Amino acid sequence: MADLTPILQMTEITKRFPGVKALSNVSFRLFPGEIHALMGENGAGKSTLIKVLTGVYSIDEGTVTMENRVLSISGPLEAQKAGISTVYQEVNLCLNLTVAENIFIGREPMRFGKINWKQMNRDAESILRERLNLAIDVKVPLQSYSVAIQQLIAIARALSISAKVLILDEPTSSLDKNEVQQLFRIMHKLKSEGLAILFVTHFLDQVYEMSDRLTVLRNGELEGEYIAAELPRMELVTKMIGKELKLLEELPKESGETKVEAKAGDMLITATGLGRKGAIDPFDLEIRKGEVVGLAGLLGSGRTEIARLFFGADRPDEGKLIVADTGSPVKSPRHAIDQRIAFCSENRKTEGIIDDLTIRENIILALQATRGWSKPISRKKQDEIAEKYINLLNIHPKNPEQLIKNLSGGNQQKVLLARWLLMNPDLLILDEPTRGIDIGAKAEIQKLVLSLSKQGMSVLFISSEMEEVIRVSDRVSVLRDRKKVKELSGDQINQQQIMKAMAGG
Length: 505
Fold this sequence. Notes:
Helix content is 34%, strand content 25%. The longest helix has 16 residues, at 117-132. The two termini are 43 Å apart. The protein has helices at 46-53, 76-81, 99-104, 117-132, 147-160, 177-192, 204-210, 233-241, 303-311, 333-338, 348-351, 359-363, 365-371, 379-392, 409-421, 439-454, 466-472, 495-503, and strands at residues 8-17, 20-30, 35-39, 61-66, 69-71, 84-87, 110-111, 114-115, 165-169, 196-200, 213-218, 221-227, 267-276, 280-288, 292-296, 318-323, 328-329, 341-344, 427-431, 458-462, 475-480, 483-489. The protein has a six-stranded mixed sheet, with helices on both faces. It is built from 18 helices and 22 strands.
C-alpha cells in the first residue's frame, strides 16, 4: 500500500429497513493505492454498504471519514464531489449518446453559452488515452461498442471527476477472459497512480489475482478484514458462509441408478437445423426427459440465442423445434409455457423480476397469467405457495410481503426459480442462473438442478463457469462463434475437451 493512513474510513455503520437490519455496526477501511475486495454471501450487506457510501441510502448510525474529514453524504452527487465514484455491474450510461457526451454528461465544457464540442471530444480522448491506454472514436454513440468498452467509458467518467475512490461492482460478470485481463491491466495502472479501488466480485480467482486486502461481511455484520495473500481460499469461504462448506465435489453427481433413466424414445424436444440469421448458425440438439444438457462457450458464442429460440422468445429463420409428446412446434413464449417449457433469463432485472411487487406476487405471476386475470388465485392459496417455495429454496428474508427489489441478487434469482418451478415444467431453461451470486447460493442452485433432474425434469443449463457446466450436465454442447461445434457426453465431459472445442483445436 502506498500509504498507511486510510483515505476512506467507515465506522460502526448501521442501516435499517422495515423489518430488516441490513447493516449492524460495520466498519471498513480503504487505503490509497490498493485494491480491496468486499466479500460476502448474497444478503451479507455488500450492496447496502456501497449504497450507504455513495449516498443512495442514508446512514442510521455511524460515520464516514474521507481524508480525515467527516462526510455527510446526502446523495450520489455529494459522493462524487467527495471523490467517490461507482461503476455498476449493469453499466448505467446513455447508449444513444456519444462516448464523449457520456464522459462529460452534466459537466460539458461551455463556450459563449454553448457546448464546446471540440474541447469535450479532445478532453475525452485525452482521458481515455492517458489514463486507460484506450484509443477509440469518442464521437460515435456508446452503443457502437462492446460491454467491456462501455465499462471502461464508465471508469473514464469516474476519473474525469477526479475520483479518489473507485468502486467496481461486479465489473467482470459480462466480460470474456481477454476483456477481464484488459480491465485488470487498467486496474493495476490506476492502483499504481494511487487510486483506491473497492472491488466487488464473486469470482474467487479474481479476488486472489487482484486484491491486496479483503473485508468479509456476514448477515449484515463485519466478519473481519484480512491480507488476501495470507488467507487460504477455504478459510475465506468458511468465513463468508459461517460454516464448513460441503463442496459439490464431495457430493458426486447422482448415479445412473438413482436418476430417472433417459431411455431411447424418451425424447422431450428436438431442434433440427434450427437457426436465426446473425444470432446462431443452424444446429441440431435433442433433450431427453430427466436430462441436464449444458451449453458451454465464451461470451457471445450463441448460448443465450439458443435458449431464446427454445422458449420462442426469438423466431428461427430456418429449421424446426418440435415438442415430442405433442409433435407441436414452439412458436412463442406463451406457446412454450403451454408446452410446459420455462425460461429463467440471465437478465433478471429486465426480463424477470417486477421490482415493485412482493416476493409472493413475483412467485405466483406466471401461474396467474396461465389462469387468466378473470380467475384470480385466492390470497390463502398465494400465501401457501409463497411459504412453500420460500422454505424450499431458502429465500431470505422469509417475509413474503417484502418487496423483491430489497432482496439480494441471489435471493431474487431464487424467487424467479420459484416462479417457474411452481409451473412444474417438463423443460426448465436456466440461462446463467448463478451469475453474480455468492458461492453458497451457487451450490444450492446446482444441487437443485441435480435434484430436479433426478425427479424427471429436463434442464437446459447455461453458465460461463465451465466447472459448473461439467458438474451438472449429462451432455454438453460446445459453441464457438455462434456455431455448435461439439457435443460431449459421459467421460468426454471435461475441461480439456470443452476448451479444445471452444478454441477450435
